[in-house]
Amino acid sequence: MKKPLVLVATLLIGGVVGFVLSQTIGNSFVSLFSGEAESKQREILYWVAPMDPNFRRDKPGKSPMGMDLVPVYADNSSPSAGTVEIDSNVIQNFGVRSESVTYGRLDREIETVGYVEYDENALQHIHTRVDGWIEKLSVKAEGDPVRKDETLFELYSRTLVNAQQEYLLAKESAQGPLIAASQERLVSLGMTAPEILELDRSQTVNQRVKVVAHTDGVVAMLGIREGVYVTPATHVMSIADLERVWILAEVMERHADAIKIGQEVVFEVDSKPGRKFEGQVEYIYPEMDPRTRSLKVRIGYSVQDDVFRPNMFARVSIIVEGKSDVIHVPTSAVIRGGSSDRVVVDLGNGRFKSTPVVAGYDSGNSTEILRGLETTDRVVTSGQFLIDSESNIDTALARFEDRSSEASERKNVNAEILGMNPIDGTLRVKHGPIDSWGWMAMTMEIRVADEALLQQVAVGDLVSLEIEKTVEGAVLITEISEASQ
């Protein structure tokens, strides 16, 4: 009877032990496989050197000191410096608004200023062809209007009087060649065909010859007065036709390459509020103004029923057809800086970051972005200045804290001196691990902060090294003492 009882008890105890072991081992396997699955699902952002987190690579490899790179996982990474998180209520109260960047064609509108000027192609300059005196001046001042064929002034010239007398004598002689020569001389001296016909009819020498206007206009320049003696070199007056004028616009140097002949132009003048006038770029002057660093552009305009007076101020917009595929954002989103421009990128879920960009040309309410943004980004268009200032403060503090912590980090570790190089000022040492820096035990060459430290040790010594990690990531031996137990 005792054997069956012992057998039953043994079976019961074995069953219990087996159940406990199976549960433990099963849970271990479950934990093992679940851990492997979890590690496989963790996203690796990049790989870094154990001793220098600033040394990053996108795949496994070796650090400059021969150590294996270690992965940085997405679930362990902290928000980058400069990222600001704002509560949704605060976003609403601040009136923060975001817009997606636009990718496509961006026409350019160059806004500048100009002034009205006479059309020099329609400007008539008056000179006499002979010496003489202004006997009677019909126009008295600059700006006086004149009509075509209206008498401008009468000229007394002894040369013209003699030429008329010679012509009449030739007529009396009835010698054809002499008459023709005398008539050609009158024409060359400035007499018109009607005046010669009148001379033929009256057979009387005109003491004063009339000079008439050849077109309607106004007197743009008056360089004489009655009684003045003039020569062919004297600029007597200029008559301008106001039916067509020029708009001379000053284009800044940064826009000079975009201006082309034939581009459409819209301009306004203060004397015609609310009205827009259209013209075209007719000519681009070849030189930059050395004082204003601007390029002069000529725009022609036919006045019709309007009145445009020279030297009127004009606001000019030149339409430039833009490139078809560019990234552009609202101009209000760009924060202009002294050395760089920035925009605030909306990262989603209440997170924002100030990002430097390279801005291209402005076109009204839009600005081209050459570098710094992707087509999928969203930028803040309202309230961005508050976010930008907060982002820059966070970035500066993070950079300051990183540098402060790096500069203050000094660690002591036991090491064996394997060699020294006085020329380079380095020691070859075999040291133990430094867990806080992620260093394992290794053999490496380290520069000394003071070459006098090389004289304190010899090959084979067991010492304690004080190692400093500088802001730039360099490693220096700052002190050598007896090895600690």
What's this, in brief?
With 485 residues, the chain is of the alpha+beta class. The protein is 23% helix and 39% strand.
Helix content: 10-25%
Return residue spans where pLDDT drops below 50 for at least 5 consecutive residues. 1-10, 16-40, 399-407
Total number of β-strand segments?
Answer: 30
Radius of gyration from the CA trace? Answer: 47 Å
Number of domains: 5
Mean pLDDT: 79
Structural class based on helices, strands and sheet pairing: alpha+beta
Distance between the termini: 67 Å
Strand content: 35-45%
Major sheet details? 6 strands, antiparallel
User: In one word, what is the shape?
Assistant: elongated
The number of helical runs is 6
Would you give an account of this structure?
It contains six helices and 30 strands. Helix 3 (158-173) runs antiparallel to helix 4. Residues 1-10, 16-40 and 399-407 have low confidence and may be disordered. Strand 18 (277-289) and strand 19 form a beta hairpin. The protein has helices at residues 2-41, 88-94, 158-173, 176-188, 193-202, 384-408; strands at 44-48, 56-57, 70-73, 83-85, 97-100, 102-104, 108-118, 123-126, 132-137, 145-146, 151-156, 208-212, 217-222, 229-230, 237-240, 244-252, 264-269, 277-289, 294-302, 313-320, 326-330, 341-348, 351-363, 366-371, 378-382, 410-421, 426-431, 442-448, 462-469, 475-482. The strands form seven sheets. Strands 4, 6, 21, 22, 23 and 24 form a six-stranded antiparallel beta sheet that branches. It has a six-stranded antiparallel β-barrel with strand order 7-16-19-18-17-20. Strands 26-27-28-30-29 form a five-stranded mixed beta barrel. It is an alpha+beta fold and 485 residues long. The chain folds into five domains: 44-73, no CATH class; 85-106 and 324-405, conserved putative lor/sdh protein from methanococcus maripaludis s2 fold; 128-235, no CATH class; 244-320, Efflux pump adaptor protein, beta barrel domain (Elongation Factor Tu (Ef-tu), domain 3), CATH 2.40.30.170; 409-482, Copper binding periplasmic protein CusF (OB fold (Dihydrolipoamide Acetyltransferase, E2P)), CATH 2.40.50.320.
